[in-house]
Structures are given as C-alpha cells and as structure tokens.
Amino acid sequence: MAENDFSLKETCPKIGGGRSTPGGEMQTSSFDLVERMTFLYIRVVKARALPSNDSFIEVTIGSYKGRTKNNTNPNPEFHEVFAFNKDRLQGNVLDVAVKANQEVIIGKCKFEVAEIPTRVPPDSPLAPQWYRLEDINGNRFGGEVMLSVWMGTQADEVFPEAWHSDCVTVNGDNAVIARSKVYLSPRLWYLRVNIIEAQDLVPLQGNRTNPEILVKGFLGNIVVRSRVSQTRTMSPVWNEDMMFVAVEPFEDSLILSLECKLGQNEECLGKCEVKLSQVERRVMPDPVPAMWYNLERVVDSVVQGFAGRIHLRVSLDGGYHVLDESIQYSSDYRASAKILWTPAIGVLELGVISASGLMPMKSRDGRGTTDAYCVAKYGQKWVRTRTIVDTFSPKWNEQYTWEVYDPYTVITIGVFDNMHLLVPGNTNGPRDSRIGKIRIRLSTLETERIYTHSYPLIVLKPDGVKKMGEIQLAVRFSCTSTIDMLQKYSEPLLPMMHYLTPLSIYQLDSLRHQATHILCMNLGRTEPPLGRDVVEYMLDFGSNIWSIRRGRANFERLVTFFTAFLDAWVWFDSVCKWKSPVTTILAHFIFLFIVFLPKYCVTSLLLYCFVIGFYRYRLRPRHPPHMDIKLSKADSALPDELDEEFDGFPSGKSADLVKKRYDRLRGIAGRMMMVLGDLATQGERVKNLLSWRDPRATFLFSMFCLVACGVIFLISMKLLMTLVAFYVMRHPRLRVFDIPSVPQNFFRRLPSRADSML
Question: Residue 58 is part of a domain; what is its CATH number?
C-alpha cells in the first residue's frame, strides 16, 4: 500500500450480500455485509463439588488461553463465554481445566475440535451440560463443570459479550474495555427560561444606589449568565431568554441566583429552584404561563428566609432539534419531542470488515503496536467494535443497522487506538489515539446497492497530513417507501420551531457546547465507556476555531463556484470580439430566437436541462465521496499554519508568536475589509442614482430614463433588444477602441459614502 495514496478503492470482499441462488433469488441474512467468520465458543456456566474454595477455569487450545475470574465458592458460578477464531486454531483438542492456588490443576476435561457441533442462528442456543472432571492422573473425583461448546459465527448472540482470542493479552476486569457495544445517547431538549422581572429584593447593603443586578442559571455543570438589568433599581427588569440543554428523564433542577455586582465581585441576593420534572413541555411556539417564584437567601448552604421573588416563563421546547453535530454533516434532524417524529423511510446497514496498513500508535515491549477499534455514529445510536489487539491489519467483520428518517444525513465512522489497555482497570487514563475518520452522506448512495470500498484513514497533525492506513467498509441504504423519501426533499430540513422562533448563531454555538458536554458525560458512564476524546472527535467538536487552511479551502470552493459565471462571461466576450465567427453568428441566431419566440425559451431551457441530466446519468459517480486532502488544502498547509490550527483556545504560545500570527491575521482581515468596502461602494452607487448626491449625475440619469421611456414607447421592444444585442456583439472592425463603455464610465463616477469614512 502506497503511503501517499489517498484515493478511494473499490474492493470485492467475500460477503453474503448480493449472492444469488440458482433460482435467481437473492440470499440475505442479518450479517450479509461482512465476511463470514467461524468461532469456537465455550460458555462456562458453573461448577460444583470442587475441593477448593478459591478456583477459576482456564480454557486452552494450542497456544491460546482464556481464564475466568476467581471465585471463592466451592460451587462457583462464572457465566462467561470464550470465542476462539477458527482460522487461528493451533490445536485439535480443547482443554477445560479448573485451577486453584495459583495454577494448581484441580480437574479438567477435553473436547475434540472435530466433534464439536455447529450452530447458526436463528437456531436456539445450545443447552449447557454437566461434564465430570478428571484429576491429573485421569481419575474422576466427583467434581463437575457445566458448559456448552459449539462452532458459530459473529451472528451469534453471545458474540459481543465473549472474550475473544484476538484479545489474548486482555484478561480479567479489563476485558470489558475490548468488547463491542451499542450505545444510545439520551434525548436532549432545549430548556428556555424567560426572565421577566424581579421584585421585593432586599439589598445586603442598605445604602446601595444604582445596583447592577444579573441572573446566573445553574443546570448541572452548566452556568449561563444574563445581562445586567438596565433599570438599576431593586425591582430589575430583563425580559431576556436563557437557554440550556436538558437531558431526559429530567431528574435535575434548575438553580437561579440573583447576583449584585460589587466591583470585581458578586454577592448573592437570593436563589430559587425549578424542578425540570414539573416544567411544562411544548412543541409549538405558543407561550407558556408566566409564574412567580420565591427567592431564598442562602448563606453557607443555610436558608435564612425570604429574599424576594422573580417572574419567570420556563418551558422545555421539544419542537427543536438539539444540534450536537455540525449542521453540515448532521446524522439526525428530528425534533426532541417524539410526537413530532415521522415514520422511518429506510434502513442503513454498515459492515465494518477490516483495516490494513495501520501505523504503530504506541510502544509495547520495545516494539510498535496498535490495538484498533472502530466507532460509528448515526442519529442517537453509537456502535463500537471489539478491540483487535496487537495487529496492523485487524479484521472485525461486524455489522450494524440504523433506521433512516432523512436521506440528507451523514454517518460518521472513526478508528481509534485503545490506549486504556496499557493501564489495566483505569478507564480515566490516557486518551485514545485517533487513527482516522470518514463520513458518508446517505443522499449520495443509490438505494439497495452494496458499496464495498477501502477508505483512506487520514489525520491532520501539526507536522502535516498523514495516511494512517485504510478501512474496508460495506454500506447499503435500503428504502422502505420511495414516495416518502422523495417527499423529504420538499420538507424543511429542521423542525418548524427553528423557523417560527429561530435561535441566534451565538445561542446555537453555546447550546452545541452544552450538548457535547452532556453526551461526553453520559457516554463516559457506560461500560465500556466512550471517552471524551472519542465523542468530541466524532462530533467534530471545535471545528469552528479559526484556521487559515480551512479558510483558504472555503475561499477556493467559492471561487470554483463563481468560475462557471466567469467562464460564461469570457465566452460571451469572445463572441463579441468575433474570435470564432461561426460561434458569433450562431449566437446571433439564438438571440433572435429568444426575442421573437419568447414563449419557447423557457420550455427549451427546461428540455435542455432534462436531456443533459439524463445524458449525465451514465457518468454519475460510482462511489461515495471521501476525505479530499487537496480540497481541504491539507497537502499545501505550511507548518506554522498547522501549528496555529492545533493551538488551544485561548492560545498557549509565546507572546511573540501570538503577535506574529495576529499581524498575519490583520493582513488577511485587511484584504477582506477592502473587498467588503468595494462591494458596499457599488451598492451605494446604485442607491445614489436618484439621491441627488451628485446633482449632475442624477440629472443625466433622470433625463436618460425619460428619453428611454419615449423610445421604448415608440419602438417595438423586440426591435430595440435586437439592436442593442447586435450593437454589443458588433464586429471588431466597427469598434473604435477596446475601452470601458459609457454606462461603465458613468457608474464609476457616481458618489458613495466611502468619502465619509475615517
């Protein structure tokens, strides 16, 4: 694999989807997007009549060993499952040994691999049986172990909870960190607190005049401040909205504290508590009733009595969609209130097959290694594959499904290195390293088609862009109702509340930070936990931080869009200059057709678009879009630009370096300021055509309008337009000089307000 090959490659894995039977019917199963993997499963349930009170069970086949947790009961219960990859089995005999007192064998039993039965879902689980144990001399002593042994696939229901031979170095309590898991993020709501006024406040200092009073809201770890009341009395008025993100089942309480500013400090005038479980929920912008809440003075966590009252209008707004991702590549646009959800229009299936060529992410025993796992996020459902230990070419072959409610959504897949395996039992240890991330927009996929591609895993680091490997995926988007899916293209992207009562860009930015913080807290309390670094990377947290590279890339995208208009103008200029006489004469005929047969113009244009659209169908893209380093300007970014992009906020660099970057930013902003000034000047010139700011220019334009009105009244519009067009496209021999036209000269002499700028 070429290290600098950032292209997308189509692959042909041996998956079940798309295989046809001799009768022509398609074979499908719950795991038809991944390669079939066969595992030897051993379910250890319990044991009885053991001579030791401290025992565990060790399962061995070849050089692979797995062991249960220690149990101090003579009749211990384990309920653990072991899975050995059949392709890597190094023996023909499976040994199950009961050990105690540090590797002393109490008893064991054996199974021939060739005699183990095969079980494939939807077959019922294999019933465990009691097996008698033999000591090291082959004598039975009365001890028994209950277990079941079978050959199965990754479709088996015990697959996610099993200990895998791919994680042979992971045992005990730390094994849970390497397991695959499905997470459901909690439903989030916007909490709107409309602060109207406060009355009967009692100042802590009786002689205070012109008090500066504000409100601080506390919801969990989130703190939001209002502006200072402009009334400057002890009956302040705000009429201001404070927005929070609340999480179901609304067990928290909102704490509002009235603060009076004393120089650099603030003193608390009173507090009130609002239980979220008692707050009214709404799905439309109808106002909720306003209520008075009593304030209590609290000193050192001790309530000291009545301190006034505050007038509030509090509501949980379920008509919004809580934006936890960037709106450009969000995976869900549904409202918080489930009553507003529409039926699903399809199913998204993702097969995480394998990765190849991964870079070493850490050192273990003096050599580079990688313990890779994959995370996928779509809507409220997060999935995490099992961790494959100590390999640069892991094979997961795990498949997941999601319900789809809107085709204009994006699924995000990220690959990480599990750093917690270095510190057993410590889930708050080092951050998992990022190996790469890809996004796939569902609207770019054809329905019912299986896309199998190898995506490059690209990471941008302070020393430049790097390819960390490739990941092989299989994706299929199935549509349950074509009519419902096509109807989605005519519906608003966001719920109605976003348009009826829109939130400001500053509120959305603050609320997105709150939503990300809540998701990090909730997913970090799961087992195995998803770390904050993983969640923030998947949600693209911090993407709005200033970056010269990203700014230059967006500017290039804008220039590319306007290039089509520029090319059209250049083509028309070449027509006017008769660089190709045939093209110019043809343009004359086209213009005559437009002028004298106008009713056919629109129909001709629409028919042209229809023909071009169907002509380009055979040229349509055959693969999903992927990360483009050239479009992102990642391959041409300078080291100092990347160092600035990865700098924290606020900056942690030296004062001289910050000054240098600030001066560079001032230069860029200066050029942007000049462009904005030129645009403003052109607009003001249009406005000043009839403002008499320049009396002579306004007089000339007014007289031109009068004369043009008479000419248009006396002469046919078709003839007038023909004369104007033929004059513009006249032959170069009829041109005196290639100088600006009279209208251009007149427009450039119009005044603007730039003269009044300091």
Answer: 2.60.40.150
Tens digits of residue pLDDT in 389-433: 888 999 999 999 999 999 999 999 999 998 887 665 555 567 889
Amino acid letter at 538? M
Q: What is the pTM of this model?
A: 0.85
Q: For residue 214, what are the domain limits?
A: 188-317
C-alpha 668/C-alpha 673 separation (Å) is: 9
pLDDT digits (tens, 9 = 90+) for 150-204: 999 888 888 888 888 877 666 656 677 888 899 999 999 999 999 999 998 887 7
Is residue 331 a part of any domain in this protein? no
Residues 559, 531 share a domain: no
Between the CA of residue 340 and those of 335, 348, 404, 544, 668, what are the distances in Å? 6, 22, 15, 30, 46
Number of structural domains, the chain? Answer: 4
- 735 contacts 612 by C-beta, under 8 angstroms: no
Give the residue from 514, 539, 564 where a domain finishes: 539
Bridge partners, 134 (sequence order): 108, 140
Tokens of 675: 């462009």
Q: Measured between alpha carbons, how far is 78 from 101 in angstroms, rounded to an integer?
A: 18
Q: Which of 284, 317, 350 is the last residue of a domain?
A: 317
Same domain (yes/no): 313, 350: no
Give 3-state DSSP helix, strand, coil % of the chain, rounded to 5.
30, 35, 35
Give strand pairing partners of 653: none
Cis geometry, peptide bond prior to residue 122 (ω within 30 degrees of 0):
yes
